[in-house]
Design goal:
single chain; 356 residues; Rossmann fold; ten-stranded mixed beta sheet; two-stranded antiparallel ribbon; globular; transmembrane helix; SGNH_hydro; membrane; SGNH/GDSL hydrolase family protein
Length: 356
């Protein structure tokens, strides 16, 4: 069964309350999780030093004369910022600081993410978030890794994620979801656990993308964003436990989410001047399940609701726009070989003639 079909079946099971098993993989999932339990014990001996807690990043970022933008962060330890040393190093704080700079307004960040959270825990997080901020402007959700490692039924996980996005959208928030990271990119995991973890996490990420877009949000593939950096500089991109990102790793994840956040908040006028998809880069409008499947293999890819001739659905279901908003900078001609270039943010530029 292909990943697109699995994503469609998982999303349908979530919508109608059925179950697709731990990772929608049938007998492979059952056998694989037995292996996962055994090899996870080995992995725990390989990974580095553990630590407890994370800095609290809730507060006001930036300044300006306008009314503050109300920003929520939900999810698991990645949303909390475990591995960061200071509050300003988390994903939420990095995005809040950038949004304030772009908008000229202060950003009030409320972080309700929970270390170790699984997708069913988003229900309670949304309750707390909306009780504190009844009319948020933006919500960023980072969740999924614990659904894989804790054997949460995938259809159950994506149903709770979709419901969380729907509730936040009804409250008026733009919602951006960083989908499940590629756990197969973690080098401390031995084979074949790494192969299984990659398959499970990518299947979950594809199903998450379908659920998020159906609920009116935007999904961004996190995937194996840190894998090359982990191999080259594990002491720089990962924290001391060799599992959670370091401040530099969080900055990289925030850079993947920020272009989509900027577009969702219309910070550069994209609603009146939408970004034109580039067919040479594989961008464009696709059936949602196709876009979701392609996105999981390329970190920094956005999948968002789209229309074709005024219709949101076609013969193959919901339409979605696929954009590679974060992509590598091509090397300069004749430049000497050196370390990989930092990713470029696909962000509109403002000129005297308008937004381009």
């Amino acid at each position: 069964m292909g990943r697109a079909r699995r994503a469609r079946n998982i999303a349908q099971a979530a919508a109608y309350g059925g179950g697709m098993g731990v990772a929608g993989l049938g007998m492979l999932g059952v056998l694989g999780y037995g292996l996962l339990r055994a090899e996870a014990l080995m992995a725990r001996r390989i990974v580095g030093q553990r630590f407890e807690g994370a800095p609290s990043d809730s507060g006001t970022y930036g300044s300006g004369s306008g009314a503050p933008l109300r920003f929520l962060v939900l999810g698991d330890s990645t949303g909390v910022g475990m591995g960061a040393d200071h509050a300003h190093e988390t994903i939420g704080a990095t995005i809040a600081t950038a949004v304030s700079s772009y908008s000229g307004r202060p950003v009030e960040l409320t972080n309700v993410a929970v270390i170790g959270a699984e997708s069913p825990g988003l229900d309670e997080q949304v309750e707390r978030a909306l009780a504190a901020v009844p009319a948020p402007d933006l919500a960023v959700i980072s969740v999924g890794a614990n659904d894989v490692t804790h054997r949460i039924d995938t259809s159950v996980a994506v149903r709770h994620l979709g419901e969380a996005v729907s509730r936040l959208r009804r409250a008026g928030a733009e919602v951006v979801v960083g989908t499940c990271p590629d756990l197969g990119a973690l080098e401390p995991l031995p084979q074949p656990l790494r192969w299984l973890a990659r398959r499970w996490s990518r299947d979950l990420a594809a199903a998450q993308t379908v659920a998020v877009v159906e609920a009116g949000g935007r999904a961004v593939s996190v995937g194996d964003l840190l894998s090359e950096a982990f191999s080259a500089e594990p002491h720089v991109m990962f924290s001391k436990d060799r599992f959670h990102p370091s401040p530099a790793g969080y900055a990289r994840v925030a850079a993947a989410l920020l272009p989509t956040v900027s577009a969702a908040l219309d910070l550069f006028g994209e609603r009146s001047h939408p970004t034109e998809p580039n067919a040479w880069r594989g961008e464009g409008v696709r059936p949602l399940v196709v876009a979701a499947t392609r996105a999981v293999t390329r970190p920094g890819t956005e999948v968002a609701p789209a229309e074709v001739r005024g219709r949101t659905r076609g013969a193959r279901g919901r339409w979605a726009m696929l954009l590679h908003r974060m992509r590598p900078v091509p090397p300069r001609s004749g430049a000497a070989a050196g370390p990989p270039a930092e990713p470029a943010l696909d962000r509109p530029s403002v000129t005297s003639a308008g937004v381009q």
